[in-house]
Amino acid sequence: PQAERPPPESECLYVAAVLREPRLLTRDVFRVCDELSHMGLRMVLAQTTSGQGVEEALFEATEVVKRALLEAGRRLSAGGSELEGEFVQVCRDIMVRRIDERLVYIKRATEQTPGAFDLTEETRQLLSERKELLALRKRVLDELRPASSGTGTKAPMQPV
């Protein structure tokens, strides 16, 4: 049997923060929870947010996921605004990484197009998606920018 791959560090931090303070999900304005790539983490998050306790959700998780979440939990702040800031930063990192991965795919898929008159419908759609992703990336970076000292926080933008 193939060994389970460990979950990405940023995704572990995301889930560990939510396990510590479930209210943080309300700060996930871009629905990063839908972008988690590791199925084990998605399952722990789903079980925890559906009313099962943290202990029960972790009981059903694999050892690889348990170890990764334990390590991530050690790296997080105990709670409060510091944990919330870390959570928002992790949301930003995950979302920007997903957008960048898709932009790389679109670049590779469209760089073979010789000229504007040779665009296929699929290429036009990819280029349109690229434009939307670039705008979303800018919104994510602007919205989830780490707070500067001495400035007020603005209300979160609604996702598209």
Largest sheet: none
Order of helices and strands: HHHHHH
Q: In which range does the helix fraction lie? A: 55-70%
Multimeric status of the protein: single chain
Question: What do these coordinates show?
Answer:
Helix 1 runs antiparallel to helix 5. This protein has 160 residues and is an all-alpha fold. The chain starts with 8 loop residues before the first helix and ends in a 17-residue tail after the last helix. 60% of the residues lie in helices and 0% in strands.
Question: Helix and strand layout, with pairings?
Answer:
Blueprint (H helix, E strand, L loop, with lengths): L8 H12 L18 H11 L4 H6 L3 H13 L4 H31 L10 H23 L17
Helix pairs in contact: 1-2, 1-4, 1-5, 5-6
Organism: Corallococcus praedator
Protein name: DNA primase
